[in-house]
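Shipment paperwork, digital attachment
Item: protein structure file
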Amino acid sequence: SPFVALTGRSAVQNFLWLAVFFLAAGSWLQSRKISAAYLITMMLLAPVVAAEIASGGDLLANSLAVSATLILALSSSNSRTQVLWALLFGVALSWRAHFLLLAVPLFVYHVRNEAWGQMWRIGIAATLAFLLVTLPIYLVDPAGFSPLHIQQKLQFFEHILPHANKVTIASAIAAGVLAAWYAKSKEQLLM
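Attachment content:
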């Protein structure tokens, strides 16, 4: 809504988050060239990215906001700045329920790197921001809460895959753990 209020269109948010992600990834990878190559490859090989930019959809902006704020929180060496980025990460997590699955590889990343203080700072700040944004919306109308409504779409596949909802969530968590555990470097975790 800030983009609509300022410009009359929501499409602008895609360009803002592309720029923020470019800067965040460049900082994380310590190379703007690799960051630019990553974004160019993403735009060329994923037609949905071009469609999101052309149509002004919010899926790209949401994904980039979550990725960029997480990268900035992880790469910040200052505790206060890290908490600020973690708070923004928590707000970004509230945009789509599936982003919560990032908690699994994020936890594994911190365990592997023995970064306990960072894990707690980011985890607590992101959780607080997520709850402050999401909980009031849920409490106003629990039956109409969008993430729970969308989750029920998997019921259409119950005849093919019993307990499709639970299997999908368990599979996503397992994939996140495996991907994070076997990533040998932060570059592999990002990609």
